[in-house]
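---------- Forwarded message ----------

FYI, see the MerR family transcriptional regulator record below. Original note from H. follows.
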Amino acid sequence: MRIGELSEKLGITVEAIRYYEKEGLLCAPDRTVSNYRVYGEHHLEDLAFVVFCRNIDISLDEIRSLLKLKHSPSESCEPINDAIDNKLTEIDKRLSQLQALKSELQRLRSKCLGHSTIGECEIIKASLTI
C-alpha cells in the first residue's frame, strides 16, 4: 500500500509516517520504479503500535525498545510490564506535581478578591518576594 493509504487507515498524517520512518520506528519500505514508497502489512502493524504508544504518552525512545521486543515474540513480556510500571510511576509523579501547582495557584488566587488595583494585587506582590 502507498503512504496515503497507510495514513488513511491509521488516521495520521503522511508527514507523521515519514517522521516515524526517519526516527527509525519503521523499517524502510520498498520503492517502486517511480520511487513511491510501498508499505506492507508489517509496516501497518508496527505503525499502529507506534500510534497506540504515542496515544498513551510513551516516548519515541521507549517505543524503539518496545518495538524490538514486539519483534521477539518468544521473549518474556516482563520488560513491557516494567516499561508500563515506569510510566505509571512517572504519571504519579506528574500528578503530584500538578496537584502541588494547583494548590499554589489556589493559595495565590485566594489572596486577591479582584476588587483591588494592580498596585495592590497580592499575586503580583507574591512574585516580587521570590
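H. also flagged this: The chain has two domains: 1-75, 81-130.
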